[in-house]
Here is the input.
Amino acid sequence: MKNLSELDWRIGKEQNALSLLDKIWQHIEQSFIAADGTDRHRTLEQLAPAAFFQPKKILQLVKVAMETPVVPNPAGSRYQVRQDYVISAIPRLLEATAYHPEHISESIDLLWQLSRQDAQHGHWGTTAREVLKRLASYQMNRWVAFNFAMLLQCIRLSTLEGALDAPFTPFDLIDVLLESEGEFTELSGNTVRFGGFALNYPAVGPVRKNALQFLKFLLSSPEDGKAVRAARTLGWLLHEYLTRVGRQRSPEEVAWQNKERCRSLAILTARIRKSPLSLPVQSEIYDAIRSGTGINCPEAIRVAAQTALTTVNRTPDLIVFDSLSRREGDLPILKADKDNPAGSWMEQIETLTKDAHSALAELNPTDRAKKLVDFARLADHARIETRGFDRLVRSFHEDVEFLEAIADQLLAPAQSGKFIQQLASALDALHAFAPTEFRGRAWKILEGENIAIVRAAATALRVYTDTATREDVALIKRFLQIPDSFTKRSSLHAIAYMGKNRALLDDLLDAALSVDVGLDVHVADGLADVFGRYGVPIRLLTAEQTSHLLKKFLAFEDLDFQQGSVPRFLSHLNENYPEQVLTFLIERTEEEERRRTAHDWNFQALPSNHHAISFGSADKELAPVLLKRSIAVYFQSNLSSDTSSELFWSIDPMAEHAIEVIADEMADARNDRIKKTLQLLGSDPRGINHALTELSRIVKEFPARSKKGKNILTLIGAANNAQSEAGATE
Here is the structure.
């Protein structure tokens, strides 16, 4: 297909040339529409080598793939290939079509559309974001004019409505265009070469200068979000990053990079001195200049940045907004200290918090809360995270009136879904330092119907000390009744870390057992965590409570979710209640048998990881009883005999009692039972030879003519014959 496409492309360069592949493309498109997800993905992957030579046809097919999604079969397997798998093959095609000047805008638009969905789709291949970054990056043996074309595309994308609404923005591509070196990966035979290469500044200089000019223009944008993002990029340019794979910079390379840093710093300094300048933009520019004082910047830049900072008027509002927007890692490292590398951060953040606290302390509690909420609104509008909000609020932990005011003032905007994280932090601080006031508000929140506010309150239910009350537990139990996954998980998380409240353990257990898990894997995971190291001890469970608890996990089609948290919990539960755990697993095995009989193979009674559930902590004296119950299920099962066999051996993987239990079943065994027993012996983790050796030992204890002895000898003979036949076949 690649060769035909290239020939068709070359012929097509001539005027009035006829396409050689029209009928083939027509057939491809018709077959593609009728295909399922797997075949669509395969078709797109097979067309990738031809994409560069057939951009128009490829773009048409890509639009078909995006506009006519795969419709899953409701009666099909749960492992059906869906639309996201088809989408994962598209970016590679668009990467090829983007190199055509007449198709670059359309290709970039489609990649941009897909990049907004990358978080929703699985990452089976190269994502749209990765392709866009690769197109913007400097590549060996690629003309620089294409990088300039990508800069123009970035500028165009930045004007689109909602360009900054997602985590991935056009400015991420501008960051790539302003990287100080290129990266390459080459494959030759079995040899892979990778590393970095110096940029030819006379060639790339115009691209970089235009990018800087665009950022300078955006610093004066009426949209604070764009100005803030431009300031952030200019701040990153001040730093001297390590080169790839230890490559050494040449003197010429160092010279042009330092010149570019000085230009970036000059742009930032000039803008912060001009009016008008909004508080969010001023704060971000100030932070960008401050980042230039770190030890990861050249000395000349550090001195110039320190000088520039002395000319900035740090008003109380700037100090508060700066503290509200920063966390420890956002501040520069001012000195190298091997013994305490984070010391410089901590000193600066403590000073910044102290200055902001002093500025806010001048206001009464209500006005102070109002100012913080107003500043949070400004930050949100400018797309700045309020990373220092929790730290700043907790600096007033002794001022209960302020904690109440900030929580109450955040409740109003939270009604519309704004500042939920800030509300959660405020409620958490209120619960920690004024628990009575928190509980009163939590009960009122439960009376409302705003699920976002309920979720915020649920994250604040945990009591970090051993001073929790029964009302705290009653609140948790009430939140657990809310039909919302996040709320239930947060409430269970609170219980999982409140085990040190010994007087409340019975109440905490009762609250945990009241939750309705349904088929929510996250809630099931949270319930299993309740009985972890810091939660409710498993020994508090009664046999009846254990059975009730296990029924909550019965309906899940498999237990492999959340990295096997439920199987781990079951293994711990086996130390106290192995009989209840076995009953639970037998019920799942029986359900699996019923489902398979109805031709439904989605239900898996046991985890896919062999022996994920261990009975090793169970009382050894109970092993024969458990094995007898398990082997009875094995002989009754048909389509689930593999599962029941695995369950049998998971009880006694070292076969300390298993062989004797199998021998006991031979007292009155029919031919069909002997055959099935032979299959069970073949699943012995220690090998069938070990099982036969043990049976040979056991048969000596019975009279030669006894029914049991004869059945065991028959079983041994059948096993030996099966091994002989298998050896002959090999």
Summary: The beta strands are 181-188, 191-198. The first strand starts at residue 181 and ends at 188. The longest helix spans residues 707-729. Residues 14-18 have pLDDT under 50 and may be disordered.
